[in-house]
């Protein structure tokens, strides 16, 4: 039970630590914290996509959404593409697995396009309610970006902009993994 609690709270604790370090302008600590926050949120997102944490459906969906929000993604959209990836597993039609066959230069150049392409690819799968959730989560992601920009432009809170830009960078490099 303690390990499950640890797995659940880890990404949010790391994000809080990032906010604190960024607030204090301790960038040598904040930037690595943003990276490990991304990794922890991504691990939690992956586990909730597979519903492998042993949680109720309601709690699993809650963590699917919240962990995805930490990495500016749609949890329901990510689950759709990821389950399709497992169904096709590096075969034709596995868009999520496609970059595994790319040379490094292509991953680095097309990473940003790939991340956006996956978002739209997810709409091919799932029920109307899942597609509705993807749209809502996408709108929330746009709101997150607006908030980060407003915090930076109006209030001079650099940490918001830095976190968003780092998440974009990490997401674009995700095909390397």
What does it look like?
The protein is globular. The chain has 7 helices and no strands. Helix content is 75%, strand content 0%. The two termini are 29 Å apart. It has helices at residues 2-23, 27-49, 57-70, 75-88, 104-121, 128-153, 158-172.
Keywords:
177 residues; mainly alpha; 7 helices
Mean pLDDT: 90
Any idea what the shape is?
globular
Q: C-alpha Rg, in Å?
A: 16 Å
End-to-end gap: 29 Å
Number of E-state strands? 0
- Indicate the percent of residues in helices: over 70%
Q: What portion of the residues fall into strands of 2 or more residues?
A: under 5%
SSE class: mainly alpha
Summarize the helix and strand pattern as letters.
HHHHHHH
Q: What summary fits the major beta sheet?
A: none
Number of helices: 7
Low-confidence stretches: none
Annotate the secondary structure layout.
Blueprint: H1 2-23, H2 27-49, H3 57-70, H4 75-88, H5 104-121, H6 128-153, H7 158-172
Helix pairs in contact: 1-2, 2-3, 2-4, 2-7, 5-7, 6-7
Task: Please outline what is shown here.
The chain is mainly alpha-helical. It has helices at residues 2-23, 27-49, 57-70, 75-88, 104-121, 128-153, 158-172. It has seven helices and no strands.
């Amino acid at each position: 039970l303690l390990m499950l609690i640890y797995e659940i709270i880890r990404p949010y604790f790391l994000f809080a630590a990032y906010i604190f370090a960024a607030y204090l302008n301790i960038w040598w600590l904040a930037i690595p914290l943003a990276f490990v926050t991304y990794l922890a949120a991504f691990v939690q997102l992956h586990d909730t996509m597979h519903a492998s944490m042993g949680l109720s459906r309601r709690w699993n969906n809650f963590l699917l959404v919240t962990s995805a929000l930490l990495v500016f993604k749609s949890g329901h959209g990510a689950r759709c593409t990821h389950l399709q990836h497992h169904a096709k597993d590096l075969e034709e039609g596995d868009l999520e697995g496609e970059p595994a066959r790319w040379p490094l230069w292509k991953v680095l150049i097309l990473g940003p396009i790939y991340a956006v392409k996956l978002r739209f690819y997810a709409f091919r799968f799932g029920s109307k309610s899942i597609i509705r959730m993807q749209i809502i989560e996408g709108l929330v992601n746009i709101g997150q970006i607006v908030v980060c920009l407003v915090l930076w432009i109006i209030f001079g809170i650099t940490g918001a902009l830095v976190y968003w830009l780092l998440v974009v960078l990490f997401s674009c490099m995700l095909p390397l993994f």
